[in-house]
Amino acid sequence: MYNIRLSQYMDEPKPATSQMIVAAHYYAAWKKGAPGLHNGFDDLHGYPERTPLAGYYDEENPEYCDWEIKWAVEHGINCFIHCWYRRPDNMGKPVTAGDLRCGHGLHEALFHARYQQYMKFAIMFEASPRWGGTDPKDMLEHLMPFWMENYFKRGNYLVMDNRPVLFVYQQQRLARECFRDAAEQKKTFDACREYCVKHGFDGMYFGVCNTTPTAEEQAEAEARGFDFRFGYGAGYTPAAPYPPEEEVLTQQCAILKKRLATDPMKNIPIASCFWDPTPRTTDHWNQMGYRFRKETVWYLQPDNYRRLLVEMKKIIDQLPDGSWGRRIFMIDNWNEWDEGHYVAPSHEFGFRYLEAIREVLTLRDNLPDYRMPQDLGLSNFNKSWGEPDLGGVCRERFHLK
Fold it and tell me: Model's pTM, two decimal places?
């Protein structure tokens, strides 16, 4: 039987128990027309191996979000960190959901998902120059009220020590354009913490995206008011494409050790599965100022990814109690389908990356459900994309006539 409706809805998730927050970065760019910079799944017709195992999907659909929640929590991922983009023309103004790029992943999908209570979430404020920045007045009068009412007060937002956690990308932009100096940024962050206290919290935690393993970078982060450092990726770039996987594994661990050496209390580990931005190595991306290069491609196959997780866990198990590295473990990435790093179920890798995460980072006290939506006749969540087109690039890559 295939695609015959056998159930009215998927079964409730059966989460695996983890003794830490296992947080995967989440790039919500798979609603038709939402990403802006690229065409979503329409850019991937020539890369059928990157097709999600459930097929193309309308990401704004809460039912598909429930499937993602189920797959994630049954394999130990218990938090999604959503990239949070503010449109440039919204800076200095009150924020609404309509002022966001890719805000559908939260406001249309997660917040209407039946099983949302199983998945914690957090936001990563994207402050890169292409998106809206901020300043002291704007952050306190516009960003914080929106974040508080829409995110921080929700029961499944990531709150630690009764403090909501905010992840920040592109600190360079904050330092260069948004705040006069480190003291002004720290003063603003402290005011945000006081704002949270007024709303019943004990403060607020700020994390900065930075995998540079230097004491100078660590000191700069602290001077600007950040509580910890994390990465969007492991910070590894090979000297040549497709390096030996043993090198990828050892270098990721070496970078983590160097970061921890600067401060064992304030650096979060991140394990990257692979990096292959081939779909983005086009003139279109070059014209926008992005420099994705095929020379940077590398892979860890799922078995070696499992080994990486084992080695990283050995490292963080030696950290002091209370360190950020003992509290949060990051996964790169849930769904960067075109940029080329994802652990979500795909046609190329199936559930193998998720199985590695469950095996190493959980107590394995559940039984994951590997039935796909198609198996239950519940796969009707693609209204926009059509079917993958095995033409063009695909024919060239696979030598098809």
Answer: 0.94
